[in-house]
Amino acid sequence: MWDPTQYSHFRDERKRPFFELLMRVDVDAPRHVADLGCGTGDLTRVLAGRWKDARVYGVDSSDAMVEEARRRPPPESLRFEVADLAGWQPPAPLDVLVSNAALHWVPDHGALLKQLAAKLAPDGVLAFQVPANFEAPSHRLIDDVRALPRFAPKLESVRRGHAETLATYEALLSGLGLTVDAWETAYLHVLPGEDAVLQWLMGTTLRPVLSALGPEEGRGFLDTLKPLLRQAYPKHERGTPYLFTRRFVVARRVR
Q1: Options 3.40.920.10, 3.40.50.150, 3.40.50.2300, 3.30.70.2740; which CATH number does 4-253 get?
Q2: Keyword annotations for this protein (predicted)?
């Protein structure tokens, strides 16, 4: 389902939240670090570079993404694995567990956070960032096209991403014995190129939709969506402005 090349469009815009999340992770010398939903592994290598003495695990459910991550030989301290991020079990309790723009694909965040917290060592840190743009015009237009009779039957079972409120994340994690730092940031990206918002969405939100539809119907979906996005997000000389909100959580296990 995932295409590493398409996902790498707008690489700088996608990387920035990761570094802003990592700045709030105050851990000096972790022994075991994991990146769940590691994608192409570029940012997992950043973790291995920051904590050179740690064992670092990059985990993604996509064979294509992990194959791309392994294309450049990783250092001995870093291992990439194909696995479901909720079900993956680390070989030892984790001192740092990072997930950047991945958890929104998993249903039932209450159960998910309980699973992730259980993977932490004492004083371990869970740090994640999730997109929170699901009520934006771009995503509402996708929902409108999904509901059309031509596409709805094939897309009925395709999961839509979601994010809980910051208050919900704080309550869930506090109840699991973690102290929580949570915040939200809205980024105004000015995207270059033609149909830039569509290209952005094709790297992430539209992947499961296009996979379920297949090539022919997928092209029909994009042809229907494209003019709607052009109207909602007009292009200017400097590019296409696209407001995108993300939620961040850094939680430390205290018991």
Answers
A1: 3.40.50.150
A2: Methyltransferase, Transferase
